[in-house]
Specification:
Oligomer: single chain
Helix content: 25-40%
Protein name: Large ribosomal subunit protein bL9c
Number of helices: 4
Pfam family, one: Ribosomal_L9_N
Domain Ribosomal protein L9: 59-86
Coiled coil: 90-117
Strand order of the largest sheet: 2-1-3
Structural class: mainly alpha
Distance between the termini: 101 Å
GO biological process, one term: translation
Length: 163
């Protein structure tokens, strides 16, 4: 014959077994309680991320995208391909974009200045000895061109970098 034992899971029965010498007034009530877990909000299925490099079918470096949480957690984050968007990261991105735009503007202005210089210089001749069939002896170096341009425009304050 098998004996069956019934266990009571009330909070007071567990408390009685652990502390037999506590007075009746300090005991937990005999009422059975149920543990209830309540979620405050749904689990996020998408994460807003910024890409650190170009990723096929996702986006280009610097793009802000919504991707599934598991894709970010298991693939993008461990490989260092993406980062979760935060307010500080957004500020850093804006500062980097402004720095890049300023650099582009500076390069564009230098190129326009050089274009104006070359327009004022126009065509110029480089004198070298030549042989049969208009072949020259030696080469024309970038420094030769810089010297000729400087001599024609008589301006030495503009740096001309030819490489």
């Amino acid at each position: 014959m098998a004996s069956t034992t019934t266990l009571s899971w009330s909070s007071s029965s567990l408390f009685n077994n652990l502390t037999p010498n506590i007075s009746e007034t300090s005991r937990i009530s005999e009422k059975k309680t149920t543990l209830m877990i309540v979620a405050q909000q749904k689990a996020q299925k998408l994460r807003k991320i910024i890409l650190k490099q170009d990723i096929a079918l996702v986006g280009k470096k610097g793009d802000v995208k919504d991707v599934k949480a598991g894709y970010y957690r298991n693939y993008l984050h461990p490989l260092g391909m993406a980062q979760i968007v935060t307010p500080t990261l957004i500020k850093e991105m804006k500062m980097e974009e402004e720095r890049i735009e300023a650099e582009k503007q500076r390069v564009k202005e230098e190129a326009q200045q050089l274009a104006r210089i070359f327009e004022t210089v126009g065509a110029f001749k480089v004198k070298r000895k030549s042989g049969k069939g208009k072949q020259i002896f030696g080469t024309v170096t970038p420094q030769d061109l810089v010297d000729i341009i400087k001599a024609q425009i008589q301006r030495y304050d503009i740096p001309i970098h030819l490489t």
